[in-house]
Amino acid sequence: KLQIKLWSVFHLWHSRLDAKWPHNCVHGMIYLAVLVAFAACDAPPVPLDDIVFEKTFVPEQCVRAVKVGDYVRYHYNGMFPDGKKFDSSYDRSSTYNVYVGKKQLIEGMDRALVGMCVNERRLVKIPPQLAYGKEGYGDVIPSDAILHFDVLLLDVWNPDDGVQMKTYYTPENCSRKVEVSDYVRYHYNGTLLDGTLFDSSHTRMRTYDTYVGIGWLIAGMDQGLLGMCVGEKRIITMPPSLGYGSNGDGSDIPQQASLVFDVVLLDLHNPKDGVSIINQDIPQHCHRKSVAGDFIRYHYNGSLLDGTFFDSSYSRNRTYDTYVGKGYVIGGMDEGLIGVCIGEKRRIIIPPHLGYGEEGTGTKIPGSAVLVFDIHIIDFHNPSDTVVITTNYKPEVCETLAKKGDFVKYHYNASLMDGSFIDSTYNYGKTYNIVLGANQVVPGMEEGLKEMCVGERRHLVIPPHLGYGERGVDGEVPASAVLIFDIEMIEMEAGLPDGYMFIWNEDVSADLFTEMDADKDLQVLASEFSDYILRQVNEGKGRLAPGFDAYRIIENMFSNQDRNGDGKITEDEFKLKADETTHDEL
């Protein structure tokens, strides 16, 4: 009686000990007590009447435990009580795959597998009546043999299973979700249910790119990707019926294996997509919108749909300058730049068929990538543009108007179309002085100053072909920049008739050469010539062209009269302008 009770207690404790207890110590103590009792009774132990198992490893997480009707994949070593091995799945390099509770196994193993978790390990002792009984199994297992199995569960699924999806990261903004026929780019790690890695796009450093829902993927992935947002991270678990089935993939994925994919979605578009435009900041006043054929200067930040940066004009500290609507840029940008205002900020989302297509750019932009451009329009113009003149103030008396040859003095504030400051005469405390028509300023300014009167104020918009052109001014005016000038006419001096640098205010002396020849030696030196002309100007008898260096004018006048270049003018050389048409002198 004592031996039977002790043996029953031993089996009760053995089967109920939790794997987290220090069961080896407790087990040993109980077992030792039983053996001592048996020795005292001088009788053999009673045979097993049920399975006995010990959990030698239990995973931290057990998402699912084996139930009757489940299909399992497991490894095992089969041994007799003396430790002699009679079978092993490891020796065959193949798991044992079977339904549980459907009499495809010996009854003891059917019972032992129920409740196991993936990656759990159990030591199972099965009595003969729950194994191969009195018949045994050929020459391998003798009659009435107790069997020990060291079992490691690798996979479990049920024929009724579908795809299981668990999202563990959702982006704050999700404007669009994957639908059937969408084209996606994603990264993944593919593992078996026990965590064995069989594939990863990360190791190839290249996304997996495919259509969804049209049969390009295994069925489970086709289902698992639906409804994802760009940036979302999701665990997709699928049974073999929705994966690689009873054959596996022939190499890394075994037969009847459940698959687990850890997926992050990076990109999403549909072949029917067009350019998407999101207006971020539209100026309050927009006098003009861009049209095809305009030349635009803009800044941009370029990124992929998942936010990965690939380019920026800001990093180069220079705008991107191009014609629009003429194929100078990718199709999506050509379209996205139409209808913008100066100063506008907008986001342009471009599908790959309107961007860099299936090939990408090789390094920064992958194939089939959706592009996102955040742009800021700095200015634009058309090659047919002229100077736009707006009069802000005009005096009541405005009769004398500036014309070619006039010497004008004016103030200005200069800026770019986006308001960037360029220069101002007010900073220097003096006017800017030029002769109209003498190519002393850009053509657009010449045009803007014409027909102004003193006191008048104008606003000028000068296109680059009438400003500083494609080169601009280094460090001051960008290439191809539209210029804004606010000008005020301060003073004006009438110029001379076209072609004249000096005129007489009264009748010319009949004896002009003699008057110039101060020392009466019948020749006029440069000093005599200069002194005479300056005296006429000072006495109001003549006028030099305003705005030019008087001495340079007189020097040129003398050189034109000194026809043989000997440094003096003779009476034979001396002629008035009325007498010839080839020189701009007297």
UniProtKB/TrEMBL annotation:
GO terms for molecular function: calcium ion binding; peptidyl-prolyl cis-trans isomerase activity. Its main location: endoplasmic reticulum. InterPro entries: EF-hand-dom_pair, EF_Hand_1_Ca_BS, EF_hand_dom, FKBP-like_isomerase, PPIase_dom_sf, PPIase_FKBP_dom. Its EC number is 5.2.1.8. One of its GO terms (cellular component) is endoplasmic reticulum. The keyword Metal-binding applies. It holds the Pfam family FKBP_C. Residues 549-584 form the EF-hand domain. It catalyses: [protein]-peptidylproline (omega=180) = [protein]-peptidylproline (omega=0). Keywords: Calcium, Endoplasmic reticulum, Glycoprotein, Isomerase, Metal-binding, Repeat, Rotamase, Signal. PPIases accelerate the folding of proteins during protein synthesis. This is peptidylprolyl isomerase. It comes from Salmo trutta.
